[in-house]
Amino acid sequence: MNDDRYVRGWAKLKEIDGQAGENVIESLQDIAPDFARLLIEFPFGDIYSRPGLDLKMRELAVVAALTAMGNAAPQLKVHIQGARNVGCSRQEIVEVIMQMAVYAGFPVALNGLFVAKEIFSQEAAA
Amino acid sequence: MNDDRYVRGWAKLKEIDGQAGENVIESLQDIAPDFARLLIEFPFGDIYSRPGLDLKMRELAVVAALTAMGNAAPQLKVHIQGARNVGCSRQEIVEVIMQMAVYAGFPVALNGLFVAKEIFSQEAAA
Amino acid sequence: MNDDRYVRGWAKLKEIDGQAGENVIESLQDIAPDFARLLIEFPFGDIYSRPGLDLKMRELAVVAALTAMGNAAPQLKVHIQGARNVGCSRQEIVEVIMQMAVYAGFPVALNGLFVAKEIFSQEAAA
Amino acid sequence: MNDDRYVRGWAKLKEIDGQAGENVIESLQDIAPDFARLLIEFPFGDIYSRPGLDLKMRELAVVAALTAMGNAAPQLKVHIQGARNVGCSRQEIVEVIMQMAVYAGFPVALNGLFVAKEIFSQEAAA
Amino acid sequence: MNDDRYVRGWAKLKEIDGQAGENVIESLQDIAPDFARLLIEFPFGDIYSRPGLDLKMRELAVVAALTAMGNAAPQLKVHIQGARNVGCSRQEIVEVIMQMAVYAGFPVALNGLFVAKEIFSQEAAA
Amino acid sequence: MNDDRYVRGWAKLKEIDGQAGENVIESLQDIAPDFARLLIEFPFGDIYSRPGLDLKMRELAVVAALTAMGNAAPQLKVHIQGARNVGCSRQEIVEVIMQMAVYAGFPVALNGLFVAKEIFSQEAAA
């Protein structure tokens, strides 16, 4: 194992996704613990740790892509929260999702907005 | 016709997509001229003209989404050029495309990078 | 704002989607009210109001596309009801969904049929 | 082999797709001749031969779905020609493709329109 | 009707999908009974009955595809169970799903693993 | 850098994809050399090097997924060749692609078969 990547990835995952990210890792332990490790090492240890694009832009890019693809609602939820965690405003998140209507249609944009609504409500309640 | 949206959209389309955008509009005239007008009015007159997200972030979000969807290479090309037109660095564009390997797989990320390579080569030649 | 498009779109949305459409608009008010307006103006005010294709054909085309894409179940539900509202028979809807097995596979066709079954049951109960 | 389905499917394939359909069947002979037979039997012998939806509506539904999915340009081309063969007007085809901008985004609608433009040009030249 | 294909398909469906497959057929009876018949005849009577690829490889291929597409969770569930029914080990299934992270991204792989976790838990409980 | 993963991945990439894989790595050097390294390390060093699934099954799973997704023709080509390199028969490859008609529709299966036809022709010519 490459300890550096793992340690760096784990810190980055917690910085971006917080408790929701830790829950994903935990839920993999009894089905595919190696995948939990790979998820920490490659996306977070390798990609998110790179310079050249700040975390706010990275999270908005993920929100854009997952909204447009429309086939991964749980991960969109984690990353809308992640976008908030790294400092994106509600307005920025809503604007990115709305913009996806142009590139992937109104249905996926609507579904993205309803996920954002759920996350923002949880924030207001907390 | 809502002249304000059209005028605002046309200016925005030229600001972002430049000559490539004008070529798309021109190429629609003999098949669906109304769609050319709608393309100017809704994406550019309505969406890109909104406050709350700057054009650099908007273009990186589009590059992310079109890379991830992997089914619209001509438009990805236009928007990688568009990202350059509004001030995104080559590094930012490359980072966003690389990041899509995490969310939509290595094949679409590779194909996105090869489109970027083509655009950057044209810049170097110009 | 272009009042004509909004008024025309709102009437068209109610004609096609009925209460389900109004519910979507209402549910957007606290997250993205501008998107509610754009949804009325562009899809309904601009596109559905165009001549050249009657509403029955338009709704069957949407049912075909949303079934095939398989990533927008709530909107497929609204538009199967919409197809009924504008005069499509149950048989026409079922035939379009079945045909999608050829173009997008049996899983999305099955999932489309189960959405139709739910809508038709609600009709029978009403 | 079920001769009825094959004979019925072959006639239906020629009615809808004409020479382009026959070319597809021919091009499969040296790689997967059984798939050529299955393609005649299931889509054309089983599905297109069903009552309850006329061929014009069936072809517009396919044009809608293939435009929206955006990952099968050769088949979209065959079916835009097929739509013409069974009596769809150019306007109907253009309207269906334009409508897909609402459900699957402007890029796939643009690419669909450019395929239609190519088919209509070939008609004009013939 | 081609009785041979139907009888052969029905036996194959029960061999692969077991009770879950029979439930799908049953649930179609009041909405599209013809589709139930076509589902037995084409996928199971025509395709799964072919020589040249054993059922274990066929089921792993389906698990791969449905994981990657990410838009048909109920069918992925049926086929993970189907893979188990025809002799695939849990490890083989988990490896195929993990591998899809490379080709279609981590979100669809995660969602596939959680479906597998559910199926394996039901086995343990049974 | 984790030299073990890189060395192991590079050997695995050459074993599976041969010259076509090396060409992909080479073509990335002037646009995203880090992505070339990540492509060697994660898919090939981490995933393909895992026990529990032999390379033949892994390559057939990739052929299934890329055929079904239908949005990455260059990579499908590389992996049909890869499947041949690790010992899959032409018949196995054709069967997997044909089977995708059931799960993702006839158009993507047809396009996959035509890619296989091209690869098999090159083999025959070599």
Write the layout of secondary structure elements.
The structure is a homohexamer of 126-residue chains.
Chain A: H1 3-27, H2 33-47, H3 55-69, H4 73-85, H5 90-104, H6 106-125
Structure overview:
Six copies of one chain form a homohexamer. Chain A has 126 residues and is mostly helical. Chain A folds into two domains: 1-50, no CATH class; 53-126, AhpD-like (Up-down Bundle). Helices cover 82% and strands 0% of the residues of chain A. Chain A contains six helices and no strands. In chain A, helix 3 runs antiparallel to helix 4. The radius of gyration of chain A is 15 Å and the shape is globular. Chains in contact: A-B, A-C, A-D, A-E, A-F, B-C, B-D, B-E, B-F, C-D, C-E, C-F, D-E, D-F, E-F. Chains A, B, C, D, E, F: Keywords: Lyase. Chains A, B, C, D, E, F: InterPro entries: 4CMD/NDH-1_regulator, AhpD-like, CMD-like. Chains A, B, C, D, E, F: One of its GO terms (molecular function) is 4-carboxymuconolactone decarboxylase activity.
